[in-house]
Write a structure and sequence with these properties.
129 residues, mainly alpha, binds iron/sulfur cluster, Uncharacterised_YgbA, Nitrous oxide-stimulated promoter
């Protein structure tokens, strides 16, 4: 599953381009994590994760596409805004906690970048005037 086509229908409603290196990397990482999670816990179809996982993935992609920090996006865990719905945030965190260590052997480059991105603090908000 590639980030390019899958989220095409969401793109028109997004503020950020998911083609930027930072955001596309984050999107690919989340996709890979959901693929691992779904393969181990659900019954994914030939086209990728199951419907419930796809719904969560679409939600995460939409949040990413509308993140007010854009390319300067911090780690969501360090974000003062927390734009996710609480129950969705908890579910995505559960998937990430489970998939994080497994990514190191399956997708090491993305895993390392994810660890580094996970240390990013939110940039200072510019003051008006
Ligand atoms: S939680 Fe914060 S960093 Fe993550 S997508 Fe939402 S606004 Fe952006
Ligand atoms: Zn699933």
């Amino acid at each position: 599953m590639r980030g390019g086509g899958r989220f095409a229908t969401l793109r028109g409603r997004m503020k950020n381009s998911l083609a930027s290196p930072r955001l596309s990397r984050e999107l690919r990482t989340i996709e890979k994590m959901f693929e691992l999670w779904c393969a181990a816990h659900h019954a994914p179809g030939a086209g990728g994760p199951c419907g419930a996982c796809r719904e969560l993935l679409d939600y995460a992609a939409a949040r990413l596409g509308n993140c007010p920090y854009g390319d300067e996006k911090p780690a969501c865990a360090k974000c003062p805004i927390h734009c996710y719905k609480p129950e969705t945030r908890e579910k995505v965190r559960e998937v990430m906690r489970w998939a994080g260590p497994r990514m190191l052997t399956r997708h090491p480059w993305l895993a390392v970048r994810h660890l580094l991105d996970g240390r990013r603090e939110a940039p200072e908000r510019k003051k008006k005037g």
